[in-house]
Amino acid sequence: MYGKVTVTGMIISSVPMGEFDRRVTILTKEKGKISAFAKGARRPTGNLTGCSQMFSFGQFVLYEGKDSYNLESADVSTSFVDVREDLNAIYYGMYFCEFALHLTRENVKAKEELNLLYVTMRALEKGQMDKKLIRVAFELRFLTEGGEMPESHRCLKCGKEMKEEEHALFNAKEGGLICMDCSGGRTGVPVCRSTVYALQFIVSSPLQSLYSFNVQENVLKELEAVRQTYSKTYAGTSFKSEEMLDILQ
Protein backbone atom coordinates (compact mmCIF):
# COMPACT_ATOMS: atom_id res chain seq x y z
CA MET A 1 0.00 0.00 0.00
CA TYR A 2 1.33 3.39 -0.96
CA GLY A 3 1.07 6.50 1.17
CA LYS A 4 2.97 8.83 3.47
CA VAL A 5 5.91 7.74 5.54
CA THR A 6 7.95 9.75 8.05
CA VAL A 7 11.64 8.94 8.50
CA THR A 8 14.56 10.31 10.47
CA GLY A 9 17.64 10.89 8.40
CA MET A 10 20.26 13.06 6.72
CA ILE A 11 20.49 14.13 3.09
CA ILE A 12 23.68 12.59 1.70
CA SER A 13 23.12 13.52 -1.95
CA SER A 14 21.24 16.35 -3.63
CA VAL A 15 21.29 16.55 -7.43
CA PRO A 16 19.52 19.09 -9.68
CA MET A 17 16.78 17.59 -11.85
CA GLY A 18 15.26 19.56 -14.68
CA GLU A 19 14.75 23.28 -14.21
CA PHE A 20 13.20 23.44 -10.75
CA ASP A 21 13.52 20.07 -8.99
CA ARG A 22 16.07 18.03 -7.07
CA ARG A 23 16.66 14.35 -6.53
CA VAL A 24 17.80 13.72 -2.97
CA THR A 25 19.13 10.63 -1.25
CA ILE A 26 18.40 10.41 2.47
CA LEU A 27 20.20 8.05 4.82
CA THR A 28 17.44 7.01 7.18
CA LYS A 29 17.27 5.14 10.46
CA GLU A 30 14.21 3.16 9.41
CA LYS A 31 14.75 2.31 5.73
CA GLY A 32 18.43 2.75 4.94
CA LYS A 33 19.03 5.05 2.02
CA ILE A 34 16.02 6.42 0.18
CA SER A 35 15.97 8.39 -3.07
CA ALA A 36 13.19 10.92 -3.49
CA PHE A 37 12.16 13.75 -5.80
CA ALA A 38 11.92 17.19 -4.23
CA LYS A 39 9.67 19.05 -6.63
CA GLY A 40 10.22 22.78 -6.83
CA ALA A 41 13.25 22.59 -4.54
CA ARG A 42 15.33 24.78 -6.85
CA ARG A 43 12.81 27.61 -6.84
CA PRO A 44 14.00 30.46 -4.57
CA THR A 45 10.65 30.53 -2.79
CA GLY A 46 9.95 26.79 -2.87
CA ASN A 47 8.92 25.21 0.43
CA LEU A 48 11.51 22.44 -0.07
CA THR A 49 14.42 24.72 -1.00
CA GLY A 50 15.99 24.88 2.45
CA CYS A 51 15.35 21.29 3.50
CA SER A 52 16.70 19.56 0.37
CA GLN A 53 20.33 20.60 0.82
CA MET A 54 23.27 18.31 1.63
CA PHE A 55 23.83 17.63 5.34
CA SER A 56 20.24 18.52 6.33
CA PHE A 57 19.27 16.31 9.28
CA GLY A 58 15.81 15.83 10.74
CA GLN A 59 12.46 14.24 9.99
CA PHE A 60 11.31 13.89 6.40
CA VAL A 61 7.77 13.25 5.23
CA LEU A 62 7.75 11.24 2.01
CA TYR A 63 4.97 10.03 -0.23
CA GLU A 64 5.66 6.53 -1.46
CA GLY A 65 4.41 6.09 -5.01
CA LYS A 66 4.52 3.08 -7.28
CA ASP A 67 8.02 3.71 -8.61
CA SER A 68 9.54 6.40 -6.39
CA TYR A 69 9.29 8.58 -3.31
CA ASN A 70 8.40 12.26 -3.34
CA LEU A 71 9.56 14.58 -0.58
CA GLU A 72 6.56 16.46 0.77
CA SER A 73 7.98 18.29 3.79
CA ALA A 74 10.74 18.20 6.36
CA ASP A 75 11.48 19.33 9.88
CA VAL A 76 15.23 20.00 9.77
CA SER A 77 16.73 20.01 13.26
CA THR A 78 20.26 20.83 12.11
CA SER A 79 21.90 21.72 8.81
CA PHE A 80 25.50 21.96 10.09
CA VAL A 81 25.87 25.64 9.24
CA ASP A 82 29.44 25.87 10.58
CA VAL A 83 30.51 23.02 8.29
CA ARG A 84 29.04 24.85 5.29
CA GLU A 85 31.12 27.92 6.12
CA ASP A 86 34.44 26.03 6.15
CA LEU A 87 35.59 24.90 2.69
CA ASN A 88 37.79 22.12 4.05
CA ALA A 89 34.99 20.86 6.29
CA ILE A 90 32.56 20.91 3.34
CA TYR A 91 34.76 18.59 1.31
CA TYR A 92 35.23 16.24 4.24
CA GLY A 93 31.47 16.22 4.82
CA MET A 94 30.83 15.50 1.15
CA TYR A 95 33.30 12.62 1.31
CA PHE A 96 31.66 11.12 4.41
CA CYS A 97 28.26 11.34 2.72
CA GLU A 98 29.58 9.71 -0.45
CA PHE A 99 31.15 6.94 1.62
CA ALA A 100 27.81 6.34 3.34
CA LEU A 101 25.97 6.49 0.02
CA HIS A 102 28.12 3.71 -1.39
CA LEU A 103 28.14 1.43 1.65
CA THR A 104 24.48 1.47 2.68
CA ARG A 105 21.50 -0.20 1.03
CA GLU A 106 17.88 0.56 0.40
CA ASN A 107 15.28 -0.97 2.73
CA VAL A 108 17.94 -2.05 5.23
CA LYS A 109 17.84 -0.21 8.55
CA ALA A 110 20.82 2.08 9.05
CA LYS A 111 20.42 3.38 12.60
CA GLU A 112 24.06 2.92 13.61
CA GLU A 113 25.40 4.27 10.32
CA LEU A 114 23.16 7.33 10.57
CA ASN A 115 24.20 7.96 14.17
CA LEU A 116 27.84 7.64 13.17
CA LEU A 117 27.44 10.10 10.31
CA TYR A 118 25.68 12.54 12.63
CA VAL A 119 28.37 12.51 15.35
CA THR A 120 31.04 12.74 12.65
CA MET A 121 29.46 15.87 11.21
CA ARG A 122 29.26 17.25 14.75
CA ALA A 123 32.99 16.63 15.18
CA LEU A 124 33.67 18.45 11.92
CA GLU A 125 31.50 21.33 13.05
CA LYS A 126 33.29 21.69 16.39
CA GLY A 127 36.66 21.87 14.64
CA GLN A 128 38.59 20.65 17.68
CA MET A 129 39.99 17.46 16.14
CA ASP A 130 42.34 16.95 13.21
CA LYS A 131 40.14 16.28 10.17
CA LYS A 132 42.48 13.53 9.02
CA LEU A 133 41.94 11.73 12.32
CA ILE A 134 38.17 12.22 12.03
CA ARG A 135 38.38 10.57 8.62
CA VAL A 136 40.32 7.61 9.99
CA ALA A 137 37.82 7.08 12.81
CA PHE A 138 34.81 7.49 10.53
CA GLU A 139 35.92 5.03 7.86
CA LEU A 140 37.13 2.30 10.20
CA ARG A 141 34.05 2.61 12.40
CA PHE A 142 31.68 2.70 9.41
CA LEU A 143 33.22 -0.52 8.07
CA THR A 144 32.97 -1.99 11.56
CA GLU A 145 29.24 -1.16 11.76
CA GLY A 146 28.83 -2.83 8.37
CA GLY A 147 30.32 -6.11 9.63
CA GLU A 148 33.98 -5.60 8.65
CA MET A 149 35.53 -4.89 12.04
CA PRO A 150 39.32 -5.21 11.94
CA GLU A 151 40.83 -7.45 14.60
CA SER A 152 42.80 -5.15 16.88
CA HIS A 153 42.89 -6.97 20.22
CA ARG A 154 44.56 -10.29 19.36
CA CYS A 155 46.98 -11.63 16.80
CA LEU A 156 45.06 -13.18 13.93
CA LYS A 157 47.48 -16.11 13.84
CA CYS A 158 48.39 -17.12 17.38
CA GLY A 159 45.73 -15.30 19.41
CA LYS A 160 48.23 -13.39 21.55
CA GLU A 161 46.85 -10.24 23.15
CA MET A 162 48.22 -7.19 21.38
CA LYS A 163 48.21 -4.78 24.34
CA GLU A 164 51.64 -5.95 25.50
CA GLU A 165 53.29 -5.85 22.05
CA GLU A 166 55.61 -2.96 21.20
CA HIS A 167 55.04 -3.41 17.46
CA ALA A 168 52.68 -5.31 15.18
CA LEU A 169 51.72 -5.62 11.53
CA PHE A 170 48.33 -4.60 10.18
CA ASN A 171 47.31 -6.79 7.25
CA ALA A 172 44.07 -5.63 5.64
CA LYS A 173 43.45 -8.73 3.52
CA GLU A 174 43.75 -11.00 6.53
CA GLY A 175 41.57 -8.63 8.56
CA GLY A 176 43.70 -6.99 11.22
CA LEU A 177 46.77 -7.26 13.42
CA ILE A 178 49.48 -9.87 13.37
CA CYS A 179 52.16 -9.99 16.05
CA MET A 180 55.79 -9.70 15.01
CA ASP A 181 56.46 -13.35 15.89
CA CYS A 182 53.88 -14.40 13.26
CA SER A 183 54.60 -11.69 10.69
CA GLY A 184 57.44 -13.38 8.82
CA GLY A 185 56.99 -13.11 5.05
CA ARG A 186 53.79 -11.07 5.32
CA THR A 187 53.27 -7.56 4.03
CA GLY A 188 51.27 -4.88 5.79
CA VAL A 189 51.42 -1.63 7.74
CA PRO A 190 53.89 -1.64 10.67
CA VAL A 191 52.21 -0.12 13.73
CA CYS A 192 53.37 0.78 17.22
CA ARG A 193 51.59 0.10 20.51
CA SER A 194 49.94 3.55 20.58
CA THR A 195 48.44 2.94 17.15
CA VAL A 196 47.08 -0.41 18.34
CA TYR A 197 45.41 1.36 21.28
CA ALA A 198 43.91 3.93 18.93
CA LEU A 199 42.54 1.20 16.67
CA GLN A 200 40.99 -0.57 19.64
CA PHE A 201 39.36 2.67 20.76
CA ILE A 202 37.97 3.44 17.30
CA VAL A 203 36.27 0.09 16.81
CA SER A 204 35.09 -0.46 20.40
CA SER A 205 34.33 2.86 22.10
CA PRO A 206 30.77 4.12 22.67
CA LEU A 207 29.73 6.23 19.69
CA GLN A 208 29.31 9.38 21.77
CA SER A 209 32.99 9.10 22.81
CA LEU A 210 34.43 8.30 19.41
CA TYR A 211 35.79 11.78 18.70
CA SER A 212 37.18 12.47 22.16
CA PHE A 213 40.80 11.42 21.62
CA ASN A 214 43.95 12.66 19.94
CA VAL A 215 47.22 11.11 18.80
CA GLN A 216 50.81 12.02 18.04
CA GLU A 217 51.78 12.78 14.44
CA ASN A 218 53.62 9.47 13.97
CA VAL A 219 50.56 7.55 15.17
CA LEU A 220 48.29 9.54 12.85
CA LYS A 221 50.50 8.59 9.89
CA GLU A 222 50.24 4.92 10.80
CA LEU A 223 46.48 5.21 11.27
CA GLU A 224 46.13 6.87 7.88
CA ALA A 225 48.06 4.04 6.27
CA VAL A 226 45.79 1.51 8.02
CA ARG A 227 42.67 3.40 6.89
CA GLN A 228 43.86 3.58 3.32
CA THR A 229 44.62 -0.11 2.95
CA TYR A 230 41.55 -1.26 4.88
CA SER A 231 39.12 0.95 2.98
CA LYS A 232 40.66 -0.04 -0.34
CA THR A 233 40.15 -3.69 0.58
CA TYR A 234 36.62 -3.54 2.01
CA ALA A 235 34.97 -0.41 0.59
CA GLY A 236 36.05 -1.57 -2.85
CA THR A 237 35.86 1.69 -4.76
CA SER A 238 37.28 5.17 -5.15
CA PHE A 239 35.24 8.29 -4.51
CA LYS A 240 34.96 11.49 -6.53
CA SER A 241 35.21 13.66 -3.43
CA GLU A 242 38.37 11.83 -2.34
CA GLU A 243 40.36 13.56 -5.08
CA MET A 244 39.70 16.95 -3.48
CA LEU A 245 40.65 15.63 -0.04
CA ASP A 246 43.95 14.39 -1.44
CA ILE A 247 44.61 17.89 -2.80
CA LEU A 248 43.73 19.50 0.54
CA GLN A 249 46.04 17.16 2.43
Q: How are the SSEs placed, and which strands pair?
A:
Blueprint: E1 3-17, E2 21-28, E3 32-38, E4 57-64, E5 69-78, H1 81-84, H2 87-103, H3 111-126, H4 131-145, E6 167-171, E7 176-179, E8 189-192, H5 193-204, H6 217-234, H7 240-248
Parallel strand pairs: 3-5
Antiparallel strand pairs: 1-2, 1-4, 2-3, 4-5, 6-7, 6-8
Helix pairs in contact: 2-3, 2-4, 2-7, 3-4, 4-6, 5-6
Highlighted features:
elongated; alpha+beta; five-stranded mixed β-barrel; 249 residues; 7 helices
Explain how this protein is built.
The chain has 249 residues and is of the alpha+beta class. The chain is built from 7 helices and 8 strands, in the order E-E-E-E-E-H-H-H-H-E-E-E-H-H-H. The chain has helices at residues 81-84, 87-103, 111-126, 131-145, 193-204, 217-234, 240-248; strands at residues 3-17, 21-28, 32-38, 57-64, 69-78, 167-171, 176-179, 189-192. Strands 1-2-3-5-4 form a 5-stranded mixed beta barrel. A hairpin with a 4-residue loop joins strand 6 and strand 7. The chain is elongated.
Averaged pLDDT: 94
Percent of residues in beta strands: 15-25%
Q: Largest beta sheet, briefly?
A: 5 strands, mixed, barrel
Count of β-strands: 8
Distance between the termini: 49 Å
Round the Cα radius of gyration to an integer and report it: 20 Å
**How many helices in DSSP terms?**
7
Find the structural class using helix and strand composition: alpha+beta
Overall form: elongated
Q: Which series of helices and strands comes N to C?
A: EEEEEHHHHEEEHHH
Uncertain segments of ≥5 residues (pLDDT<50)? none
Helix content: 25-40%
Strand order of the largest sheet: 1-2-3-5-4
